[in-house]
Amino acid sequence: MEESNGQTTDRYAADGYEAMYRADWYGPGGMMEPGRPGPVDRGQQLKEARRHFSKLGIMFLVGTLVIYAVQLLAMGGVSILRPQWMRDVNISLLVSLMPMYLIGMPILILLVRTIPAEKPQRRPIKAGQFLAAVIMCFGFVYITNFLGNILTTIIGILKGGTVQNELVEMTGSISLWAIALYMVICAPVMEEYIFRKLIVDRVIRYGQGTAVLLSGLMFGLFHGNLNQFVYAFVLGVFLAYLYVKTGNLKITIAIHMMINFMGGLVSSALMRMVDLEYLRLSAEMDMAALMEYVSEHAAGLLAYGAFLVFVLGSMVAGFVIFIVCLAKKKIGFQKGSVALLQGERFRTVFWNPGMVFYCIFWIGMIVYQLLM
User: Fold this and answer.
1) What pLDDT shows up at residue 64?
2) Helix/strand/coil for 335
3) Taking 90 as the threshold, does the pLDDT of residue 275 lie above it?
4) For helices 267-274 and 298-327, angle between their N-to-C axes, nearest 10 degrees
5) What is the largest CA-CA distance in the chain?
6) Of 218, 317, 324, 358, which is the most exposed, with the fewest CB atoms less than 10 Å away?
7) Which tens digit of pLDDT belongs to each residue from 120-150?
């Protein structure tokens, strides 16, 4: 990285990055010069990078196991001492999630903070840019959620059953205040700090693209089921991109809250207003009952219809804005202070004990959920 007119510039951002890098490493003509680091130093640098990523994976895996442990202990203790509490879905969810947010995740944060970090440069974002980011984010989430549902439906058909959508089942059974507390407030704050700030700050030295991809992948896997993995991965990638470009975690928290507010609270409230009973009545061709139902639930049906228009509009508008940004070359990644050349990235970032075990654990959880 170099300084030019007070601005930090990337020496390797232009085309021909690899040739420039090798020239810097070996000197003009590809020959080593006195005083320049040699191949042994480069190998040592890659080993240190692998250890860095491995430690990151290990700390996240240990933190994950701590989260599961405190949840199981809390639920087991309450089941023994106050079994009647576990029959209330809102209380049982409280018993499950509060240990995670108050004990498990803070321990995970402390573990990850032992790894050296560097913050992305802070840059302002204009109101128009923020609005475009929000629209694209909604569009990406709805498109990938739709694709994820198609994928799990196909898997359900192949296995001769259905794949449980744990999020839909949970939001359909708990109260709206619980959805607001856990999904709209707690989850965005904790998840953005853990999966955006903690990961990106510790990976950005190896390039913005690497930080964005790893943040999205680890975030998606952490959800532990295929339904959520598909859209959570894309959401994580998009929010990580915003964080590396702005250095402002408040922006990603705000957008995450909007996504969960619409996808969790609003959609659940509308489903309870409509109850989708009209589909059964339509299938039975009971027109009299259908007309009565529509007249009694007109407000809910109109609100649900407006929500569907919002979803479809977000998908189209988000896709169009994304294509325009690509065409105008407004989306790009800067190289990091520690360069990983093509062919080095995968084995450095993922092919190490910590990341391998983290991925195996969560992929196993996803496969188990599919087979249930």
Assistant:
1) 96
2) coil
3) no
4) 150
5) 90
6) 324
7) 999 999 999 999 999 999 999 999 999 998 9
Sign of CA dihedral 238, 243, 248, 253: positive
Structure tokens at 263: 């996808």
Q: Which helix (H) or strand (E) holds 4?
A: strand 2-4
Q: How many residues does the chain have?
A: 372
Place of tokens 């609100």: 303
The one-character DSSP state at 30 is G
Question: What is residue 7's three-state secondary structure?
Answer: strand
Query: CA-CA distance, 242 to 124, in Å (whole number)?
Result: 11
Range from 38-47, 92-101, 238-247, 275-284 carrying the lowest mean pLDDT: 275-284
CA-wise closest residue to 58 among 191, 209, 218: 218
Segments in the chain forming alpha helices (H): 17-26, 39-81, 89-99, 105-112, 127-159, 166-173, 176-179, 187-192, 199-203, 208-222, 226-246, 249-260, 267-274, 277-283, 287-296, 298-327, 345-349, 353-371
- Residue 10 reports pLDDT greater than 90: no
Pair 196, 324: CB distance under 8 Å: no
Which tokens sit at 348? 């450095």
